[in-house]
From TrEMBL:
This is Aminotransferase. Its EC number is 2.6.1.-. It is an enzyme of class 2 (transferase). Belongs to the class-I pyridoxal-phosphate-dependent aminotransferase family. It comes from Neobacillus vireti LMG 21834.
Length: 392
């Protein structure tokens, strides 16, 4: 095979690999409880589905503006004003095929070969790969349960070089559910201002915060507004992962550059999904609130059950739908060498699919998703507990 050098440095998404393996085992008839999922288990609310059906019936089935329908960008602009206190015009917004696509576009637009992007580990699996695809270098700051999975300002200062271009933030975080406070964001923002860096703020889990309040870093000052690219979308909040709608808010100049790039790769996202996204953003928030309440219950349940198993250090997630416990205390009793071996053991012995922390740059941890029913969570941890007790 003679593939491009660029792609040879990319590692396949560990989360999708495990998902595929899990689906295969299920197809073979094995009973697997899937706690590896990265998407809501709820249905897209009916009023959103209806808007999509209406779009089809009304023939809204053609190419749209590459940047996304003006009407959708207006809805996003209104949302950013209402929820995040940020004044972006529809011309400063670009709609793409999911927030993942939005992030990909940003790195392609901003990075030159060798430019550095500061990210924290544990990180969402696609960040380092997307940065490398844009010829950039991910510079990773390690965080852990002790510092609540949050970067300290001094850690950031230590890794800044003349090549640093972007600080990437993800609050609430996948995989840890950690949430940065306004004060913490301000401190990071001041570093970005001092060193003239861009901030990319991935706020895709914004609506799923249980205890804290979400703060958009771009809302904190004019200086931060001007250097921040805010990323969001409808996938997680409205249970719309398959519809593929994400967006960025930035300067008009960068929005135009990214639109031009997008026009030569994917053009506009689906016209039907765009109409559904308008309904999501303009509709009642009650379904989002109901889903959030359910996630909160499941989070509390999962924390309680994990605490009941062996030596597990846990940081209660404040948002998103993942728990990322430190399971290094499990290795010796289970006779395992790594979190990857523990994940395999969980799948094969306990019938529970979860993702090893190594996939997120943090060996010694496991990511359990609580985007599944309370019953599944109860069954999964009963099975793990039983197998652990048998081992001891
Ligand atoms: N950012 C983070 C942190 C995510 O976890 C995900 C999805 O898992 C995305 C972005 C991408 O979301 P979308 O479905 O909108 O592409």
């Amino acid at each position: 095979m003679n593939y491009s050098v660029k792609l040879s440095s990319i590692t396949p998404s560990a989360t999708s690999t495990l998902n595929t393996l899990t689906k295969e085992l299920i197809k073979e008839g094995k009973s697997i409880i899937n706690l590896s999922i990265g998407e809501p288990d709820f249905e897209t609310p009916d009023y959103i589905k209806e808007a999509a059906k209406k779009a089809i019936d009304e023939g809204i089935t053609r190419y749209t503006e590459n940047q996304g329908f003006f009407q959708l960008r207006k809805s996003i602009s209104d949302k950013l004003k209402r929820d995040n206190h940020m004044a972006y015009s529809p011309y400063e917004i670009v709609v793409s095929n999911g927030a993942k696509h939005s992030l990909y576009n940003i790195f392609q637009a901003l990075l030159n070969p060798g430019d550095e992007v500061i990210i924290q580990s544990p990180y969402w699996v696609s960040y380092p790969e997307m940065i490398k695809l844009a010829a950039g270098n991910p510079v990773i700051i390690k965080t852990n349960t002790i510092n609540q999975f949050k970067m300290k300002p001094e850690q950031i200062r230590e890794v800044i070089t003349p090549k640093t271009k972007i600080i990437l933030l993800n609050s609430p975080s996948n995989p840890t559910g950690s949430v940065y406070s306004k004060e913490e964001l301000m401190e990071i923002g001041n570093i970005a201002i001092k060193h003239d860096l861009y901030i990319v703020s991935d706020e895709i889990y914004e609506k799923l915060i249980f205890d804290d309040k979400h703060t958009s870093i771009a809302s904190l000052s004019n200086e931060l507004f001007n250097r921040t690219i805010t990323v969001n979308g409808v996938s997680k909040a409205y249970a719309m992962t398959g519809w593929r709608i994400g967006y960025i808010a930035t300067t008009r100049d960068l929005a135009n550059t990214i639109t031009s790039f997008q026009s030569h790769s994917t053009s506009n996202p689906s016209s039907i999904s765009q109409m559904a996204a308008i309904a999501a953003l303009e509709g009642p928030e009650s379904s989002v609130i109901q889903m959030k309440e359910r996630y909160k219950k499941r989070r509390d349940l999962m924390c309680e059950l994990i605490n009941d198993i062996m030596d597990t250090r846990l940081c209660v997630p404040k948002g998103a739908f993942y728990i990322f416990p430190d399971i290094s205390g499990w290795l010796k009793p289970l006779g395992k060498q790594s979190c990857v071996e523990v994940a395999q053991w969980l799948l094969e012995e306990c019938g529970v699919a979860a993702i090893p922390g190594a996939a997120f740059g943090s060996p010694g941890y496991i990511r359990f998703s609580f985007a599944t029913s309370e019953e599944n969570i109860q069954r999964a941890f009963a099975s793990i507990k039983e197998k652990i007790e048998k081992n001891n």
